[in-house]
Amino acid sequence: MFQGGARRLYEAIRNRLRGEMTTEVATVESIAPTPPSQPMMALRSITKKFPGLVANDAVDLDIFGGEVHAVLGENGAGKSTLMKVAYGFYRADSGEVQLNGQTVKIRTPYDARRLNIGMVFQNFTLIPAFSVAENIALFLRDLPLLMDKKKIAREIEELSNRFGFSIDPNQLAGRLSIGEQQKVEVLKLLLAGARLLVFDEPTSVLPPHEVDGLLQVFDRLKESGFAVIFITHKLDEVLRSADRITVMRKGTVSGTMLVGAAAAAQAGANRGCCALLGATGSRDSKLERSPQLERDRPDGPSGRDRGRRRASRQWTDRSRGRNPWSRAMLDRPEAPAR
């Protein structure tokens, strides 16, 4: 499907968006919201090198408020490295970060949080023996010597109700499910004032039944004007949640395209997207396409793909519900950068 890499995928979609697509596919762009003229965050010519590796090579990226922006690519594409540069976890060798049109210096995660940027990592940082309120209080900037625990609990409850989290501020963090712990990480960022939130492969740690809840959180954040960056390799989840997709490969951006979250739920749009994704003509990619798109392909799934799905079901049974195909990549990483 992705023969020739992500660049061909992007070029195929871009060409169709310029007038070669069917009427059904044309609705994909029209459903996506019109972004403001100025991005909330702009990355300009970001380059990050490690010994023997160029993880990011002069990358440009615009992030708008009120959108879910998915950064899609195989393992080793440089997508996580790019966002860690934006969050101050790494320092870029060259390039600049702009917030609302102003160039800023982000040298540490503390700088990023001070500029209202937050990041949810795959590994959470909660203290199991502390309550939700205590974990959040420890994260807040300028922590006072004396804390009003009732006030913090009220704020947590109000914010939880607003975004549908249903988190008890007095519950011990160690007794929460993985999905609930992830929501506490989000609450920490929101109460600290974050307006731009980065999620690094957030669904990789979640059981399948909690994925939909996270995607609903994305929708609520977007409706409230937040900017959400969704780092992933799972195409199906991208089509269900993202307004805009940036495809990365080998440290560079192949391109950015509009999707429209509502379009992914429409059968007509699915058939159109499937035609676009299949425009490269290859079925050898290991990056999973959406099962819904596969069903809607005009020519139907190939025999090889049907065999893969049978094998996938068998593996799912053997691994107690964990589907290894969902973790498949375009190719093996050429370097440790993600």
Structural class: alpha/beta
Give me the strand/helix succession: HHEEEHEEHEHHHEHEHEEHHH
Return Rg in Å: 20 Å
Based on Cα principal axes, name the global outline: globular
Per CATH, the architecture is 3-Layer(aba) Sandwich
Number of spatially distinct domains: 1
Strand order of the largest sheet: 6-7-8-3-9-10
First-last Cα distance: 22 Å
What name does the CATH topology carry? Rossmann fold
- In percent terms, what proportion of residues is strand? 15-25%
Account of the protein in words:
The strands form 2 sheets. Strands 6-7-8-3-9-10 form a 6-stranded mixed β-sheet, sandwiched between helices. The chain is an alpha/beta fold and 338 residues long. The chain contains 12 helices and 10 strands. The longest helix is centred in the middle third of the chain and has 16 residues. It has one domain: Rossmann fold, CATH 3.40.50.300. 38% of the residues lie in helices and 19% in strands. A hairpin with a 2-residue loop joins strand 4 and strand 5. The chain starts with 5 loop residues before the first helix and ends in a 20-residue tail after the last helix.
